[in-house]
Design a protein that fits this description.
Number of strands of chain A: 11
Helix content of chain A: under 10%
CATH architecture of chain A: Sandwich
Structural class of chain A: mainly beta
CATH class of chain A: Mainly Beta
Helix content of chain B: under 10%
Order of helices and strands of chain B: EEEEEEEEEEE
Number of helices of chain B: 0
CATH architecture of chain B: Sandwich
Shape of chain A: globular
Shape of chain B: globular
Largest sheet of chain B: 7 strands, mixed
Order of helices and strands of chain A: EEEEEEEEEEE
Radius of gyration of chain B: 13 Å
Strand content of chain A: over 45%
Oligomer: heterodimer
């Protein structure tokens, strides 16, 4: 059972455009939603994360939007740059327990110059 | 200093061979993991260790055996390698006593190719 569904699988955006990656979860116990960024040849690394007590979190050009009632969250990359080209993974977890984060299947983002 | 380091980075071997991938973390974390990433980039957890004890063992062939000599090390041994084992294997760790919610720190991966 896939507990975190991520879309699209791949995304091509022009430089300066907005990249949007969506995730949906099923387990209402999830209360921590990180996004990881993976460059070719590297391991994934934490990019930004959100708790469900806020609807949005922004760090630079990266914003997470969170809709608790719809059980959905999304990553928005404003003014996308070629250097943002990477694979992005959403994840969901439960704080304070023994739950290993569940990852989405990843989105391969290509930003054309 | 590399937080999670794994060796070798590249490994090409023949079917039927036995190989090992070593992993060390210098973050003082209690929990370590092995993930497998296939050609479609899907990250699948294989094992999780907390303070040297196996916590999670997902559906993985018993040809794969993790070994944790101490909480800073988690090695992966693979016996009788098969073509389908070709993938990137990531070691990772997370901090404090709880497994959940903490940032997972990944190594740079070990590219295994079985020919």
């Amino acid at each position: 059972q896939q507990q975190v569904k991520q879309s699209p699988q791949s995304l091509i955006v022009q430089k300066g455009g907005i990249s949007i990656i969506n995730c949906a979860y099923e387990n209402t116990a999830f209360d921590y939603f990180p996004w990881y960024q993976q460059f070719p040849g590297k391991g994934p690394a934490l990019l930004i994360a959100i708790r469900p007590d806020v609807s949005e979190k922004k760090e630079g050009r990266f914003t997470i939007s969170f809709n608790k009632s719809a059980k959905q969250f999304s990553l928005h990359i404003m003014d996308s740059q070629p250097g943002d080209s990477a694979t992005y993974f959403c994840a969901a977890s439960i704080l304070g327990g023994s739950y290993i984060p569940t990852f989405g299947r990843g989105t391969s983002l290509i930003v054309h110059p | 200093d590399t937080a999670v380091s794994q060796t070798p980075k590249y490994l090409v071997t023949q079917m039927g061979n036995d190989k090992s991938i070593k992993c060390e973390q210098n973050l003082g974390h209690d929990t370590m993991y092995w993930y497998k990433q296939d050609s479609k980039k899907f990250l699948k957890i294989m094992f999780s260790y907390n303070n040297k004890e196996l916590i999670i063992n997902e559906t993985v062939p018993n040809r794969f055996s993790p070994k944790s000599p101490d909480k800073a090390h988690l090695n992966l041994h693979i016996n009788s390698l098969e073509l389908g084992d070709s993938a990137v294997y990531f070691c990772a760790s997370s901090g404090l006593s709880g497994l959940s919610g903490n940032t997972i720190y990944f190594g740079e991966g070990s590219w295994l190719t079985v020919v």
